[in-house]
Each structure stands twice: as C-alpha cells, then as structure tokens.
Amino acid sequence: MSLFKQPALGESEEPYVFLSGVIQTRYSVCQFNIDSEEGQISSQVILITEFEGKKLVAFPFGVWHRNLQRRVLPSQCLAKPVLVEVQACRPEALDEPLEELYIKLSYGLAI
After folding, report:
1. Number of domains comprising the chain
2. pTM
C-alpha cells in the first residue's frame, strides 16, 4: 500500500504542479511511502496533476530506473513510467530555473 504524506519541503495551498490548466510556481514536494518485501521505502515525490482518477507523479531518477536491479521502488508503484530531463531550481525559488542545470526525473501514474 502506498501513501503520500504532507509536504517534506516547502509549503503551498495546492499540492499539484498543474491545476485547472495553470502551472503552479509554488508547489509542495511530498513524501511517498510504500511497504515492500525489504520493509518500508520512502522517497520525495512531486504531484504533477490528477489524470483519470490517478495521480501523475515525478520521482527522482535514482528511485525509479528501468533496470530492475537499479530500481528502488517496486515495479507495481508506477504505471507508464517515462524518463525526462527538466531544468533544475532551488527549493526556495521554484519559479526561478537555474541556467544550464538539468536533472532527470521519472514520471508516471501512481498505482
């Protein structure tokens, strides 16, 4: 069973990056917890939006990897995962992208 906890970083009225057709520049980074065979696994996660009743989420690249041996989260956590590169920003200035600094994220539908 998975669980999204309240913000691990930052504060915002809305947890989603994309809401009602508008990109939010003040969004929360949440904590995602799941019980696995190895015990409880935690990771930061960004809630992007809701899509067809499911949450579209983004995990740090190191947490979700297409190679099973390098993956931290169990494969049943994320449907239709995609690797993307996005421009980085500081946690205290989410609306100010850092020039020429990109990070990798894996996003998909949380199951």
Report:
1. 1
2. 0.78
